[in-house]
Write a structure and sequence with these properties.
The protein is of the alpha/beta class. It has 2 domains: about 80 residues, no CATH class; about 150 residues, Hexapeptide repeat proteins (UDP N-Acetylglucosamine Acyltransferase, domain 1), CATH 2.160.10. It is built from 6 helices and 18 strands. Strands 1-4-7-12-15-17-18 form a 7-stranded mixed beta sheet. Strands 2-5-8-13-16 form a 5-stranded parallel beta sheet. α1 packs antiparallel against α2. The radius of gyration is 24 Å and the shape is elongated.
Length: about 260
């Protein structure tokens, strides 16, 4: 059992059971029954108190509780698995962002660790302070091909699907996003996050401090993204794009590399 989380549930169960008691004009024994039911629902179904209140679980029949509860239990296992993986990712990032891995004899060790963890192709190189991360309990995936460079301070959000193909060079401090918040749902008090897909084709180059937003789903072969550009839409093959927002200023000859 996660003791820290159980303490949180205990704390909020005391507060929320009082609110339910007052809303229903009931007495102390009713509140105690709600409190104990909240604790039991957490232990049996991994249901948090805000979920208990949202579902008005205290008004449900035993059959309804079983049906709803086991759905939450399934989601709870998935949530716990995601959190465990997220913590492992953070520990990995913090470990290999230590300054000692800038020493020449440890740089390759850092790259090898990234290659193994994220199943990167051969010939890749990862510089200092590179973070690959998922957000908001989204499943996400990332695929990185051969001979890819991830320069220092690069951040890649792979909450959606990110595929980086062979020979791609990503310069320092580039930020890549692959999800966005549904603002209409947010206005209604709902936290809905939508994953997106991004493919960066072979031999593309993304310049220093560029930002790739989730509205961009494709960066073409041999494309060039200028330093500081904010990419909001797809970039075709062999294109050079610069500016905020990024605009294609030319299509390079296909013989260029």
């Amino acid at each position: 059992m996660n003791i820290r989380r159980f303490r949180q549930v205990w704390h909020y169960a005391k507060k929320d059971s009082i609110k339910i008691k007052e809303q229903n004009g009931k007495g102390y024994l009713y509140r105690l029954n709600i409190f104990l039911d909240m604790i039991y629902s957490y232990l049996k179904y991994n249901m948090w108190t805000n979920q208990y209140v949202k579902e008005e679980f205290y008004n449900k029949s035993s059959e309804e509780k079983e049906k709803i509860g086991f759905e939450y239990k399934k989601k709870g296992y998935e949530r716990d698995k995601w959190q465990k993986e997220f913590i492992e990712d953070r520990k990995f990032f913090l470990k290999y962002s230590q300054k000692k891995y800038e020493l020449p004899h440890l740089r390759q060790k850092r790259t090898n660790a990234y290659r193994q963890k994220y199943n990167m192709g051969s010939g890749c190189f990862v510089e200092y302070d590179v973070e690959l991360s998922r957000q908001h309990y989204l499943p996400g995936s990332i695929k990185i091909g051969n001979n890819v460079l991830l320069a220092k301070h690069v951040f890649i959000d792979y909450s959606g699907e990110v595929e980086i193909k062979d020979g791609v060079k990503i310069a320092a401090s580039v930020k890549i996003e692959s999800h966005h918040r549904d603002l209409k749902a947010y206005e209604k008090g709902l936290d809905v996050n939508i994953p997106t897909k991004l493919i960066i084709e072979e031999n593309a180059y993304i310049g220093v401090n560029a930002i790739i937003l989730d509205s961009c789903n494709y960066i073409g072969k041999h494309a060039r993204i200028g330093a500081g550009a904010v990419v909001t839409k797809d970039i075709p093959d062999y294109a050079t794009a610069v500016g905020v927002p990024a605009k294609v200023i030319r299509i390079n000859k296909k013989t260029e590399t």
